[in-house]
Amino acid sequence: MSINQWMSLLGLANRARKVTSGEELTIKEIRNGKAKLILLSADASINTAKKVTDKCKSYHVPYKLVENREILGHAIGKEARVVVAVLDDGFAKKLKSLLD
């Protein structure tokens, strides 16, 4: 999988306002059923990773690990981000296929 492909797609989703980032906002989106895919950085703290993955499992939201928080933040044109929620089915499906 080329890093750039999924990163530019995530950037596109972000510009389309179909992305939210940060732990609290992401958990909120999972809870209210809007999150279609969660991207979690591999260097997230154990607590954050557990909180987010548990929430994903209980709400049946798929999640993918990405290399690190810098890459994830950079993809959406922000500072380092540990977790990002994709709020659109189309973007989520395509991202999932690129990250598999």
TrEMBL record:
Ribosomal protein eL8/eL30/eS12/Gadd45 domain residues: 5-95
Gene Ontology process terms (BP): ribosome biogenesis
Keyword Ribosomal protein attached: yes
GO annotation, cellular component aspect: ribonucleoprotein complex; ribosome
Recorded superkingdom: Bacteria
Keyword rRNA-binding part of the UniProt annotation: no
Cross-referenced Pfam families: Ribosomal_L7Ae (PF01248)
InterPro entries assigned to the protein according to its UniProt record, in alphabetical order: Ribosomal_eL30-like_sf, Ribosomal_eL8-like_CS, Ribosomal_eL8/eL30/eS12/Gad45
Protein's name according to its UniProt entry: 50S ribosomal protein L7
